[in-house]
Design goal:
Layout: H1 13-32, H2 50-69, E1 70-80, E2 84-94, E3 102-103, E4 109-114, E5 117-122, E6 133-134, H3 145-156, H4 163-166, H5 186-207, H6 212-227, H7 235-251, H8 280-297
Parallel strand pairs: 3-6
Antiparallel strand pairs: 1-2, 4-5
Helix pairs in contact: 1-2, 5-6, 6-7
Length: 298
């Protein structure tokens, strides 16, 4: 923790004043609680001794570390099939491992809080040598680029130069066109659209009974198809990440008393044939049969 980034040289006078005042106050509380014992300086000395100066400097340093390396601890407070999971901050923590990941407004990971711990899961296939990217706060599809950049500069002291910022990716509501990757056919585009509709239907059934592991597996398979079909940015990638976020929180995350969602159930136990227990090719095959029958009837 001691060696994490502090941005001391980039701090403003207001930052230095805030850290200094807080460090002095904490040092004062240590003194009156007899932390230094008989070696504490006296009021008549009118200055701190070497031990107190050392602790004061350490306090100042730790306050700087906390300012730029903390992660919020959340809990799930609400769940809705359409709106997804809603979380609320209940505190902060310093996780030295997670603090090492760089920020991106288009991250390839998601996080959830499990009590005082944090679980991080990839939302894309991350190859050896590729960067694992976290999101410190805002993502490109939620906030305008100007808002994101100002926040990052003021809060974390850096200019965000992630792919989403450099290429000025639009917010979710302004993603009106899908760009196919080179060589992708109309048939493949039709397939990915149908696959999304099928997985959405299966997920709705599984969410209602707590089969979160299977939902994760289905959306992971959807990513493999999506990644070979459409370029970023695209609403499909945002929806995929959102669903994986829901699953992660409902399967593993901490829940508040107001979060009304089914508890996790293993879908392999006591399976009953229903739409939630049908696999993707099976359900898509049935849809293809229905479409063919409609054509024949016409």
């Amino acid at each position: 923790m001691y060696n994490l980034l502090t941005h001391s040289r980039k701090a403003s006078e207001a930052d230095h004043l805030a850290f200094s005042t807080s460090a002095c106050l904490l040092l004062y509380y240590l003194k009156i609680s007899n932390y230094f014992g008989s070696s504490a300086s006296r009021e008549s000395d009118r200055e701190l001794n070497d031990s107190e100066v050392l602790i004061g400097r350490l306090l100042y340093h730790i306050l700087e570390v906390n300012q730029y390396n903390t992660q919020e601890i959340h809990q799930a407070v609400a769940w809705n099939q359409d709106k997804g999971i809603t979380t609320s901050s209940i505190g902060c923590a310093v996780n030295p491992t997670i603090a090492l990941f760089n920020h991106s407004c288009a991250p390839n990971t998601i996080r959830a809080s499990i009590g005082p711990n944090t679980i991080m899961v990839a939302t894309e296939n991350i190859k050896k040598g590729q960067e694992v990217k976290d999101s410190y706060s805002y993502q490109f599809h939620d906030k305008l680029i100007k808002t994101r950049k100002v926040h990052m500069k003021e809060r974390y002291k850096f200019d965000c130069k992630c792919e989403a910022c450099e290429k000025m990716w639009p917010m979710y509501e302004f993603m009106t066109k899908s760009v196919a990757k080179p060589g992708v056919t109309a048939k493949a585009l039709h397939h990915i659209k149908k696959m999304y509709a099928t997985i959405s239907k299966l997920s709705a059934a599984d969410f209602s009974v707590g089969h979160y592991d299977r939902i994760h597996t289905m959306w992971a398979s959807y990513y493999n198809e999506l990644n070979t079909t459409l370029e970023k940015p695209n609403k499909g990638y945002v929806r995929l990440s959102s669903r994986l976020q829901d699953v992660l929180w409902l399967r593993w995350g901490s829940r508040g008393p107001t979060c009304q969602a089914p508890l996790y159930r293993d879908h392999r136990i006591n399976q009953v044939r229903s739409s939630s227990n049908m696999n993707i090719p099976q359900l898509m095959g049935e849809k293809n049969g229905e479409e063919q029958k409609e054509k024949e009837d016409k």
